[in-house]
Write a structure and sequence with these properties.
The chain is α/β, with parallel strands linked by helices and 440 residues long. The chain is built from 14 helices and twelve strands. It has a six-stranded parallel sheet with strand order 5-4-3-10-11-12, covered by helices on one side. The chain has a three-stranded antiparallel sheet with strand order 7-6-8. Helix 2 packs across helix 12, helix 5 packs across helix 13 and helix 13 packs across helix 14. The longest helix is centred in the C-terminal third of the chain and has 65 residues. It binds 2'-O-acetyl adenosine-5-diphosphoribose (OAD).
């Protein structure tokens, strides 16, 4: 995967946007318009998406994290009990993030491959939240979804590839980390589902490494690797955003987390999450071990930027209606349902979700059918081989019998009549067997 490594501060500096052109529209009562009284809510955000509202957000940018996929059965990373990092004890890692650390992977790749077996796409379906993104696209309101997720569920929800930025890569492609040669999906899937470490199948690579080949890894961005070029190429979208939806992320990993502050200073932002994260003046935990690489040694530092849900940074003369950030606490699927309800999109959202899930079921069904057909073909082949073996062995017996008969005839034990019928032969063989017979 082509990549580029930029330190966090470089990125934040680069993204600082001047007030003015291309940003969100100027509003006299905060971004919410004259009808807003008091602090904004999810309902205020929904109004910005309504076609009959003066604002009419048309360049919605979404920043998504693992929380949007938990309802499909994929654990997030940092939730205290259910998160992936809390459940990695059996891998004996030096620190949880090591499972996605490129240096650790080079040394001990088995842990990653064992985990990949559980996370590999194919077993999961998009959630209502993924479908809400697709709905935004269908309603011509979506500019881009930046996702940290590697599960490809945005694609499965039907979002076109050019609407998605997979900031941390995905399982969709894989390559040798040594010769960079891409391997087929089928090949890597076989390795992953068998929980096996994958080594490059290229002969040239195997020759150069003395037989085994380089390690093959899905194009997921590991700690210590650069983000994909596409991430940097799409950064300008943030400047164009007229509504930022941040959903299901702890905003613990840079440079992704800094995107929250890359939008225009008046762009309304909503966080749909189980907990408050990414707030200004809060202390960033910085995570453990390998995260220092992304945080550039800023563990425990005070955030100078981030969400301001309380209006701490507002000038004294501005009322709560000027707050631009909204925190909606809860499961994101319920949050998008509420947004959809406010917008009169409930039916659209559920129909979309149903259709997508049905399509995936059908596809899995046909794959399952194909698998069953393959299995029954294999069984039929085994049967055929077994039958062929039995026939061969019977023919073999028959040859022995004929041979015996001829030898008996030669020995003149067949009454001198030269009978060579099968019945005669069998009887003669039985006679010979009973008498101890000649060794064949
Ligand atoms: P985290 O696990 O760090 O954060 C998930 C957030 O979603 C937490 O704040 C949860 O409370 C919240 N959450 C969980 N379920 C939710 C739900 N149903 N509705 C709403 N919120 C929910 O995941 P990310 O922020 O995505 O890197 O993690 C960022 C990166 O760290 C990942 O991309 C990964 C990891 O190391 C790589 O894979 C390279």
């Amino acid at each position: 995967m082509p990549s580029r490594s930029l330190p966090t501060y470089h990125l934040i500096g680069k993204l600082k946007t001047p007030m003015g052109s291309g940003g969100a529209k100027k509003a006299s009562h905060g971004p919410w318009g004259p009808g807003q009284s008091g602090a904004p809510t999810l309902s205020s955000v929904a109004k910005l998406l309504r076609d009959d509202h003066a604002y009419q957000a048309r360049n919605v940018v979404v920043l998504a994290g693992a929380g949007i996929s938990t309802a499909s059965g994929i654990p997030d990373f940092r939730s205290p009990k259910t998160g992936l990092y809390a459940n990695l004890k059996r891998y004996s890692l030096p620190y949880p993030e090591a499972i996605f650390d490129i240096d650790y992977f080079r040394e001990k790749p088995q842990a990653f491959f064992t985990l990949s077996k559980e996370l590999y796409p194919g077993n999961f379906k998009p959630t209502l939240t993924h479908c809400f993104f697709k709905l935004l696209e269908d309603k011509a309101k979506l500019l881009r979804v930046f996702t940290q997720n590697i599960d490809t569920l945005e694609r499965l929800a039907g979002l076109p590839a050019d609407r998605i930025v997979e900031a941390h890569g995905s399982f969709a492609t894989s390559r040798c980390i040594r010769c960079k040669e891409e391997v087929s999906q089928r090949w890597i899937k076989e390795k992953v589902t068998a929980g096996q470490v994958a080594y490059c199948p290229q002969e040239s690579c195997q020759r150069k490494t003395g037989g085994q080949g380089g390690l093959v890894k899905p194009d997921i961005v590991f700690f210590g690797e650069g983000l994909p070029d596409r991430f940097f190429a799409c950064l300008d979208d943030l400047k164009k955003a007229d509504l930022l939806i941040v959903v299901g992320t702890s905003l613990q990993v840079q440079p992704f987390a800094s995107l929250v502050d890359a939008v225009h200073p008046s762009c309304p932002r909503i966080l749909l999450n189980l907990e408050r994260v990414g707030e200004i003046a809060s202390y960033g935990s910085g995570g453990a071990g390998g995260l220092d690489r992304f945080f550039g040694g800023m563990r425990g530092a005070m955030n100078e930027k981030g969400f301001d849900f309380e209006g701490w940074t507002l000038p004294k003369d501005k009322g709560k209606e000027h707050i631009r950030d909204v925190f909606w606490e809860g499961k994101c699927d319920e949050g998008v349902e509420e947004l959809a309800r406010e917008l009169g999109w409930t039916e659209d959202l559920h129909r979309l979700h149903r259709d997508i899930c049905r399509k995936i079921d059908e596809e899995n069904g046909s794959t399952e059918l194909g698998k069953q057909q393959d299995e029954s073909l294999a069984r039929a082949q085994q049967e055929a081989e077994k039958t062929a073996d039995e026939v061969t062995s019977q023919l073999e017996d028959k040859r022995h019998s004929d041979d015996l008969a001829h030898r008996l005839a030669d020995l003149d034990v067949n009454d001198g009549k030269g009978e060579t019928t099968e019945q005669a032969t069998v009887e003669q063989v039985e006679t010979l067997k009973r008498s101890g017979g000649p060794s064949l």
